[in-house]
TrEMBL record:
Organism: Hordeum vulgare subsp. vulgare
UniProt-recorded name of the protein: Acyl-coenzyme A oxidase
Xref: SUPFAM superfamilies: Acyl-CoA dehydrogenase C-terminal domain-like (SSF47203), Acyl-CoA dehydrogenase NM domain-like (SSF56645)
Annotated Acyl-CoA oxidase C-alpha1 domain residues: 331-486
Entries under PANTHER family matching the protein: ACYL-COENZYME A OXIDASE (PTHR10909:SF378), ELECTRON TRANSPORT OXIDOREDUCTASE (PTHR10909)
Superkingdom of the source species: Eukaryota
One Pfam family it belongs to: ACOX_C_alpha1
Keyword Oxidoreductase: yes
Length: 691
């Protein structure tokens, strides 16, 4: 007996057995209430008996938008055309050629007219953008440059004469074009662009010039190879109309500038085009640099919706100041930001789907003398992926809300709604793209060595998506716009003004949300209370209101010694945190509303579970803020932490159905480890064909 006992002790003391013992302990799941642990199988049985079996088809029905049929049409078109599918390895020149052929086939063979869709129903246009992005993110950006930017600038900044001349030929791809805003020295600060367009009253033309190297138009999509026109943003200069007969600078305007011959495709005189070369990602897009040397264009090429120049050189505008004209011009270009936020959610869905399916498939370790278990049964893996899956659902409903608001804005041209969409699109684009960029890396890491294989897509997704954080507005700059608008709303509150739609919860924030936290509710830790949408949304809004109140006080204090710019810079991190907090409040509010409006009871239960995880995980991540102001007592903080772990486990039980509900075809997922079945067989086949 003694010998047997010592033998067992010796066996348990080996490194392998110690590791197995630790891993077994690691599997124990936290209970929702009180102490102790819960055995996974027993927990699964209890919860499933409670009616939380998820139906992927019912979830898909809840997620599916009005234009799923159009997306299916796009998917089916490309799946049937293998020569149009992007291979894993492709040189830059071949990728650019393929990307243009993919876009041309979409328009000329599949019969999709993106510019017409954007004008008639923006929601359908964005659905197409997500679908083509599933094939290749380079294609989505190429389509976006042609239609959102080049086409969008013509129809939104031009007038009837421009639409009549250009609309159809942009739509059918006869006029491929560029959007030439960014310069070598200026990207975010558009008002400081240096390119000039000087009116010549003798010839009735504008003369477009690049005055120095810093004014070279840089990173211009479609410029290096395919573009025939460019919408060029330049300073409109009127000779002799300034003070003392000096030239008058009327601010930034947009001009249509031909850059290549329509027949021969030769670069036109006075235009210099250089290739920006190989990039970290998106190498199917031909980015180029444009320099203009006294390029003459007709006066009619001024996109004159917000400002015009008559034959005699007289300038007229319905907007009295340069700043108002500039704001109106940029306000008409928010569709690009809406599209990036929309597409970024699509990238997140693909990444999470691959990671979750692989985590369900992959088995590593297990209790002694028992089968290995799925890596998604490990608490640490659930902690990585389940909040991310919940975020994908939250962002899905937030982007739908944004697109609905944008569509309404385009129908009504309501100024207040336009301002609201401008700020909301800035915030959601910034928040979602930053989150997705980090999530892709976490998904890659969660798939171990196989996540590093190019065929499993994380490298390409990460590199192609990374720039989403920069173009159409740098994320840090966009968050400052959100913060600035919140401060404006805050000021109007005290002046008795009305609040815009998205910010209307601030109407009560200075009283309800800024009162001292209730010491009784601060200690409530029951599951029903913590999973109450009112508690969750109140917590989000309390944090935003507290941040808004405190940063307003700090700015007022620092302005006395540092001035406006210095005070803003001193409080910049505080302002960015405020903006993110507000956007999180908007996202949660839309998720809660989507749960309430789901007609199927069982599906609503599943969505409620996912929504609870999204909300409580966000609260836990910023628990220090809530603790510092006594909004959450220590015991309540601990209960939130336990519940987040518990909810992550519950979401794990329906994770397969939740990713299947995204309804992304395997041909679009493409990563072998993310296939719905026989993933390893797909993987070995793909690797064999690449060798």
């Amino acid at each position: 007996m003694a010998t047997t006992s010592r033998s067992g002790d010796d066996e348990d003391s080996t490194p392998a057995m110690r590791r197995l013992r630790r891993l077994s302990l690691h599997l124990l799941q936290p209970a929702a209430e009180g102490g102790g642990s819960l055995v996974p199988a027993a927990c699964a049985g209890r919860r499933r008996a409670g009616g939380l079996d998820a139906d992927a088809a019912a979830l898909t029905a809840c997620l599916r938008g009005r234009h799923r049929a159009m997306q299916a049409r796009v998917y089916e078109f490309y799946v049937a055309r293998p020569e149009l599918q992007t291979p894993v390895e492709l040189p830059m020149a071949a990728h650019r050629d393929l990307c243009f052929r993919q876009m041309a086939a979409l328009v000329r063979e599949a019969g999709v007219r993106p510019l017409s869709l954007m004008a008639a129903d923006p929601a359908e246009y964005f659905a197409v953008m997500e679908a083509v992005g599933g094939l290749d993110i380079s294609l989505a950006i190429k389509v976006g440059v042609q239609y959102s930017l080049w086409g969008g600038s013509v129809i939104n900044l031009g007038t009837k004469k421009h639409r009549e001349k250009y609309f159809d030929k942009i739509d059918n791809l006869e006029y491929p074009g560029c959007f030439a805003m960014t310069e070598l020295h200026h990207g975010s600060n558009v008002q400081a662009l240096q390119t000039t367009a000087t009116f010549d009253p003798v010839t009735d033309e504008f003369i477009v010039d690049t005055p120095n190297d810093g004014a070279i138009k840089w990173w211009i999509g479609n410029a290096a190879l395919h573009g025939k026109f460019a919408t060029v943003f330049a300073r409109l200069i009127l000779p002799l109309q300034g003070k003392g007969g000096e030239p008058a600078d009327m601010g930034i305007h947009a001009f249509i500038v031909p850059i290549r011959d329509l027949e021969t495709h030769a670069v036109l005189p006075g235009i210099e085009i250089n290739d920006c070369g190989h990039k970290i990602g998106l190498n199917g897009v031909d980015n180029g640099a444009l320099r203009f040397r006294s390029v003459r264009i007709p006066r009619d090429n001024l996109l004159n919706r917000f400002g015009d120049v008559a034959r005699d050189g007289k300038y007229t505008s319905s907007l009295p100041t340069i700043n108002r004209r500039f704001a109106a011009t940029l306000g008409e270009l928010v569709g690009g930001r809406v599209g990036l936020a929309y597409s970024s959610v699509g990238v997140l869905k693909v990444s999470v789907t691959i990671a979750v399916r692989y985590a369900l498939l992959r088995q590593q370790f297990g209790p002694p003398k028992e089968p290995e278990i799925s890596v998604l049964d490990y608490q640490s893996h659930q902690h990585k992926l389940m909040p991310m899956l919940a975020s994908a659902y939250a962002f899905h409903f937030a982007r739908s809300y944004l697109v609905d608001m944008y569509s309404e804005m385009k129908k009504t041209n309501d100024e207040d709604l336009s301002a609201d969409v401008h700020v909301l699109s800035s915030g959601l684009k910034s928040y979602i793209t930053s989150y997705t960029a980090k999530a892709i890396s976490i998904c890659r890491e969660s798939c171990g060595g196989h996540g590093y294989a190019a065929v499993n897509r994380f490298g390409g997704l990460r590199n192609d998506h990374d720039i989403f954080q920069t173009f159409e507005g740098d994320n840090t700059v966009l968050l400052q716009q959100v913060a600035g608008d919140l401060l404006k709303q805050y000021q109007q509150k005290f002046k008795g003004g009305t609040l815009s739609v998205t910010w209307n919860y601030l109407r009560d924030s200075m009283s309800t949300y800024l009162s001292q936290p209730n010491p009784v509710t601060a200690r409530w830790e029951g599951e029903d209370h913590l999973r109450d949408p009112k508690f969750q949304l109140d917590a989000f809004r309390y944090r935003t209101s507290k941040l808004l109140h405190s940063v307003a006080a700090r700015l007022q204090k620092h302005m006395k010694t540092l001035g406006g710019f210095g005070a803003w810079n001193r409080c910049l991190n505080h302002l960015l945190t405020l903006a993110e907090s507000h956007i999180e409040s908007v996202i949660l509010a839309r998720f809660i509303e989507a749960v309430k409006s789901c007609p199927d009871e069982k599906t609503r239960e599943v969505l409620k579970l996912v929504c609870d995880l999204y909300a409580l995980e966000r609260i836990w991540k910023d628990i220090g803020t809530y603790r510092n102001v006594d909004y959450v007592a220590p015991n309540k903080a601990k209960a939130i932490h336990k519940l987040v772990d518990y909810l992550s486990y519950q979401v794990r039980l329906v994770a397969r159905e939740l990713v299947d509900a995204f309804d992304i075809p395997d041909q679009i997922i493409r990563a072998p480890i993310g296939m719905q079945s026989e993933a390893y067989a797909h993987y070995t086949f793909c690797v064999a064909t690449l060798l």
